[in-house]
Design goal:
The protein is an alpha+beta fold. Helices cover 50% and strands 8% of the residues. The protein has a four-stranded mixed sheet with strand order 2-1-3-4, with helices on one face. Helix 1 runs antiparallel to helix 7, helix 4 packs antiparallel against helix 6 and helix 7 packs across helix 8. The longest helix is centred in the middle third of the chain and has 23 residues. Bound molecules: glutathione. The site of glutathione has 17 residues, from helix 1, helix 3 and helix 5. The site of glutathione (GSH) has 17 residues, from helix 1, helix 3 and helix 5.
Length: 219
Amino acid sequence: MVTERLCLFSYWRSSAAYRVRIGLNLKGLGYELMPVHLLRDGGEQHSDDYKVTNPQQLVPVLQHGHRMLRQSLAILEYLDEMWPSPPLLPATARGRQRVRSLAQLVACDIHPLNNLRVLQYFERDWGVPQPERDVWVRHWITEGFSAFEALLQDHPSTGAFCDGNAPTIADCCLIPQMYNARRFAVDLASYPTLLRIEEACMALPEFDAARPERQPDAP
Ligand SMILES: N[C@@H](CCC(=O)N[C@@H](CS)C(=O)NCC(=O)O)C(=O)O
């Protein structure tokens, strides 16, 4: 089963898909890329075909053989269970709890508030102009990153990466969110630990290859 083909439904600028691209690269897994353009023709994620792939109309989806795997955090954990080396979670229950809590800070408490469909809803249904939408995005990233920075600073488990000296799913979530923060011109100067960890991650070819600009569907 581990040898079955992997195919990632992805969009170059999707931070949730970016998380999975990093995870696949860290595991050394080759995969096909199936681009889903989130803006073209009203968004290919809303097409009838794609609704079968993911009724939530979101990327990423990882196809493994005939199985369709959804939700980036669940996909990362699946990769870790199927291909345990190198691990994306620490060896201890306490360590795993810490890493999952950091990953979820991003994936559950920052990212969903700023997702494309939320911003489109503001624009289409409520007529919220772009500058106000951008303030909204910056607000939630800043609030989340302030907590993330506080949780990392001076914590004995923080190392070169969010937890220890090897990347975990916390780093898989942090790095795409940093990319998003820059996209929305968030001032990152107050987050020295996040910036240091970002530099360590981006020095790794697995993170570099997962960057939005490196994707075949990037413009
Ligand atoms: N909780 C989901 C979130 C997935 C998600 O929000 N994907 C975004 C791109 S980052 C998307 O497909 N948005 C399409 C839309 O909002 O219409 C996960 O982690 O996989």
